C-alpha cells in the first residue's frame, strides 16, 4: 500500500531532482539540505578529546539523584515548556489563550496529564508515603519526527505544485497569501531537532528521578540493556534518551543499546505489524483511519468555505484541511514555526484532536480487534520480567532467538527502558488492559464528544508509560505496582481482578501479575492477526477479535 503511494510519487520526485535551483522554488516543491558536507570528518588528532588533553579537574560523582523518593513535589511538564523551543500561534479566532499544540493527537509534543483526569485526585508519580520504588519499567516513544513519505502533507504539496503548472496557476490572498510562495521543507521519517530534545530531556528526567536504581547494576557488575528498533529515528531516539540519562559521551560506554530489526516478516515486539498481517487490513486493523476520515468529511465545512473564499485555482477538500492541520503540526515540530497554524479556529483544533481520537481508539485501542494481539509481545515480555521467567512463549511477535538469550533479554534489571512507536505503545496499553484510558466507552464517530480517550494525552511525541514496582510499609502484601502514563497515575481497580480502588493507584504486585498472565492467555494472536473476519466500527472489542 505504502509502496504504491511511493511509486506514484516517483515520477514527481525524480523530476524534482533534475530541476535547477530556481525552478525548485515552485510552490509545493520539495527540497532537502544535506549536512555535513561530503568528505568531511572530525579530526581528533588536531582536536583531541577530554582523555587526549587530560587535566579534567576534580571528578567526584556524588550520590545518584532519587527525586521520585526525595523531592518535595513532582516536576510536571506543563505550559510552554512542553513545546520549547517551538513557536506556536494562537488559533484564528482571536486570543483564546489555548495551547494549540495540545490538540495535535500523535503529533503533539508530550505534556504532563494530571492524575485527576483519570479520577485519582490526590496522588503524584512521587513514591507514596511509606513506599519505595525498587524497580522501574519504561516504555517510551520517539520524539517529534518528519511525516511518512507520501502521506497527506506530501500529497498537499504535490497538489499545490500541480496547481502552479496549470493554466493561470492559482491565486491566494488574505489568510492564505503565504501559500503563493510556500515550499515543502520537511524530510521524511527522521527524528527532528525538537524530537531529539524531547528524548534527551526524557532521559535526563529519568536519571533525576530514578538514578539511584543504577546502584543495583553497580552491585551486580553489569550494564543495563535498553532496547529499540532499527529505523533511523528509533536508533537516534534511544541514543538521545541514553545521552540524557548517562551524559555525553558517557552514554556510549555505560549502556548496551539493543537494536531489533524492524522489517517485514521479522519477529520484533517493538514492530509487531511486520508479522501481524491484519494490522494493515482496512476492514480489521485500520477501521479507525477510515472512520476518522469520514468524520473529517463533515467536521470542516465552515472552514473549507472560509478558506476557499481566499484562493482560486485550487479546490479545498476535507483531505486538504487535515493535510494543512498536519502541516501546522509537522512544520512547527520540525521547523519551529508554521504559517498554517493560524488558519484554524479553536473548534478546528478540537475537531482535529477528535479525528485522531477516533483513529487511534479504533486502530490501536479498545475499539480495535487487532490491538491487543499486537501488544501481546510487550505484554508477555513484561510478565517475563516481572516473574523473572525466561523464554516467554513465541506465539506472538516475540523473537525467541533474542528472548531466550539473557544477553539480549536479561531478567534481573532494576531499570528497563524500551523505545517504540505510538501505535505499539497504545496496542500495549490495550493488551495491558489499562481500561481507565477507555472508560467512557466507544467513541461516537459522527460527532465530537467528551471522552476519557484523548490521543494527545496517550500517544504524543515522547509519550511514556512508567511502571513502578514498590515496597510499601503500610500495605499488605508489601510488594505493590502502579502504572503512570505521561505523569498521570492510572487507577487499575477496573483493570485487574483483585485490585481495589486505591488513592495512589497501587495494587498488589502478585494480583496484577496474575491478571496479566490471564491476559496473555486470552489474547489470540493467531486468530486476531491472521483470521478472516470483518470488524464492526463503534464496538468495544477490548482490543480482541476473538473473545471468551
Ligand atoms: C476529582 O476531581 C474532579 C475535578 O477535578 C471531580 O469532578 C471529581 O468529583 C473528584 N473525584 C473525587 C473522587 O474526589
Ligand atoms: C499532479 O499531477 C499529475 C499529472 O497530472 C498527477 O498524476 C498527480 O496525481 C498529481 N498529484 C497530486 C498530488 O494531485
Ligand atoms: C530475530 O531478531 C533478529 C535481530 O533483530 C533478526 O535478525 C531475526 O531475523 C529475527 N528472527 C525472526 C524469526 O524473525
Ligand atoms: C459537509 O459537506 C459535505 C460535502 O459537501 C456534505 O456531504 C456534508 O453533508 C456537509 N456536512 C455538514 C455537517 O454540513
Ligand atoms: C473546482 O471545482 C469546480 C466545480 O466542481 C470545477 O469546475 C473546477 O474545475 C475545479 N477546479 C480545479 C482546479 O480542480
Ligand atoms: C516468530 O513468530 C511466530 C509467530 O508468532 C512464531 O511461530 C515463531 O516461533 C517466532 N520465531 C521466533 C524465532 O521467535
Ligand atoms: C544478570 O543477568 C546478566 C545477563 O544475563 C548476567 O550477566 C548477570 O550475571 C546477572 N546478575 C545476577 C546478579 O544474576
Ligand atoms: C537488582 O534489581 C533486581 C530487579 O529488581 C533484583 O532482582 C536484584 O535482587 C537486585 N540486586 C541487588 C544486588 O540489589
Ligand atoms: C480487563 O478490564 C475489563 C474492563 O474493566 C474487565 O472487565 C476485565 O475483567 C479485565 N480483564 C482481566 C484479565 O482482568
Ligand atoms: C473471508 O471470508 C469471506 C466471507 O465469509 C469470504 O468471502 C472470503 O473468501 C474469505 N477470504 C479468505 C481469504 O478466506
Textual characterization of the structure:
This protein is of the alpha+beta class and about 550 residues long. The chain contains 19 helices and ten strands. It has helices at about 1-20, 20-25, 50-55, 65-70, 150-165, 195-210, 215-220, 230-245, 250-255, 285-300, 300-310, 320-335, 345-365, 370-385, 400-405, 420-430, 455-460, 510-520, 525-530, and strands spanning about 130-140, 170, 225-230, 255-260, 310, 415-420, 465-470, 480-485, 490, 505-510. The two termini are about 35 Å apart. One 2-acetamido-2-deoxy-beta-D-glucopyranose binds near residues 260, 261, 266 and 401. This is Acid phosphatase.
Task: Indicate the topology.
Blueprint: H1 2-18, H2 21-24, H3 50-53, H4 67-70, E1 131-141, H5 152-165, E2 171-172, H6 193-210, H7 214-220, E3 225-229, H8 232-246, H9 251-254, E4 256-260, H10 287-299, H11 301-308, E5 311-312, H12 318-335, H13 346-364, H14 371-387, H15 400-403, E6 415-420, H16 422-431, H17 455-458, E7 464-472, E8 479-485, E9 488-489, E10 507-508, H18 509-522, H19 525-530
Parallel strand pairs: 1-6, 3-4
Antiparallel strand pairs: 1-7, 2-5, 7-8, 8-9, 8-10
Helix pairs in contact: 5-12, 6-8, 10-13, 14-16, 14-18
Bound molecules: 2-acetamido-2-deoxy-beta-D-glucopyranose (10 copies).
Label the overall shape.
globular
**Cofactors, ions and other ligands in the entry:** 2-acetamido-2-deoxy-beta-D-glucopyranose
CATH structural architecture of the domain at 2-7 and 65-130 and 145-153 and 190-302 and 357-463 and 473-530: 3-Layer(aba) Sandwich
Tally of contiguous helical segments: 19
Helices and strands: which structural class?
Answer: alpha+beta
Compute the CA-based radius of gyration: 24 Å
Main sheet?
Answer: 6 strands, mixed
